[in-house]
């Protein structure tokens, strides 16, 4: 523990003397505007791991104040990291929000990176970059970021969702109402038929009684 503390202190001193950037201990805050800005890994395009050390950098990109209903757009322009299965050694991860636990938008390592713009659903994005101790002699990454107005399509989706729910309710009501109506008509018709039969039976019975009385007198 004692030696680790002194090793870190000496490393920080050497970094400072040689002007070699590392990862700041805290998350770095960046502001996005409509004009494009750039984020790079430490020492880009030089090797991100100048010494045998573990790196852990994080950045939060937030839309500049005064912009409402905006999202963060990012595009990875170039990247070269150590490759490992499931990117367990060196990797970059972009998340939809300002926290490490927010939904992942992309993660990568090796010589490939996500193509095309990456969009958040809100006005913040989190970028994390971490490495292991060895084979950090790679260039790292550079990504462009800017803010854009939130697509109107998202609002329409919510509206259409409500309309769809209403239409579904009306459809289900009609679906249930039609059989009930037919059932009611059938029952009504059946009752009327039975009533007609009873009335006609009563009429027949009355006529028979009158005839009998006439015969007796
Ligand atoms: Ca590595």
**Major sheet attributes:** 5 strands, mixed
Query: Which percent range describes the beta-strand content?
Result: 25-35%
CATH architecture assignment of the largest domain: Sandwich
Instruction: Tell me the radius of gyration.
Output: 39 Å
CATH topology of the largest domain: Jelly Rolls
Order of neighbouring strands in the sheet with most strands: 1-3-8-5-6
CATH evolutionary superfamily of the largest domain: Spermadhesin, CUB domain
| Main structural class | alpha+beta
Number of domains: 2
- The stretches of 5 or more residues where confidence is low (pLDDT under 50) are 210-217
Give the helix proportion (percent range).
Answer: 25-40%
CATH class of the largest domain: Mainly Beta
- How confident is the prediction overall: mean pLDDT? 83
User: What is the H/E order?
Assistant: HEEEEEEEEEH
Bound molecules: calcium ion
Shape: rod-shaped
Oligomer: single chain
Number of strands: 9
The span between the termini is: 132 Å
Count of separate DSSP helical elements: 2
Signal peptide: 1-19
Protein name: CUB domain-containing protein
Transmembrane segments: 165-187
Domain CUB: 23-148
Question: Care to describe what's here?
Answer:
The protein is of the alpha+beta class and 217 residues long. The protein folds into 2 domains: 18-150, Sandwich (Jelly Rolls), CATH 2.60.120; 152-217. It has 2 helices and 9 strands, in the order H-E-E-E-E-E-E-E-E-E-H. The chain has helices spanning 2-18, 152-216, and strands spanning 28-32, 37-40, 56-63, 70-80, 91-95, 104-108, 118-119, 124-130, 140-149. The chain has a 5-stranded mixed β-sheet, with no helix packed on it. The protein has a 4-stranded antiparallel β-sheet with strand order 2-9-4-7, with no helix packed on it. A hairpin with an 8-residue loop joins strand 5 (91-95) and strand 6. The protein is rod-shaped, with a radius of gyration of 39 Å.
């Amino acid at each position: 523990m004692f030696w680790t503390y002194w090793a870190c202190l000496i490393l920080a001193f050497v970094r400072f003397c040689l002007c070699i950037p590392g990862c700041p201990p805290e998350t770095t805050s960046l502001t996005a505007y409509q004009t494009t800005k750039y984020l790079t890994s430490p020492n880009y395009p030089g090797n991100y791991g100048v010494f045998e050390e573990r790196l852990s950098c994080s950045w939060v990109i937030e839309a500049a104040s005064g912009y409402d209903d905006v999202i963060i757009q990012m595009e990875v322009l170039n990247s070269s990291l150590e490759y490992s299965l499931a990117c367990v050694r060196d990797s970059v991860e972009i998340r939809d929000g300002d926290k490490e636990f927010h939904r992942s938008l992309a993660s990568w390592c090796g010589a490939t990176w996500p193509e095309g713009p990456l969009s958040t659903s809100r006005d913040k994005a989190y970028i994390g970059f971490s490495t292991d101790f060895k084979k950090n002699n790679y260039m790292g990454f550079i990504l462009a970021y800017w803010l854009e107005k939130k697509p109107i399509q998202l609002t329409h989706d919510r509206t259409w969702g409500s309309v769809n729910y209403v239409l579904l309710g009306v459809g289900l009501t009609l679906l249930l109402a039609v059989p009930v109506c037919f059932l009611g008509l059938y029952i009504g018709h059946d009752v009327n038929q039975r009533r007609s039969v009873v009335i006609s039976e009563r009429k027949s019975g009355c006529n028979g009684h009158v005839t009998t009385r006439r015969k007796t007198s």
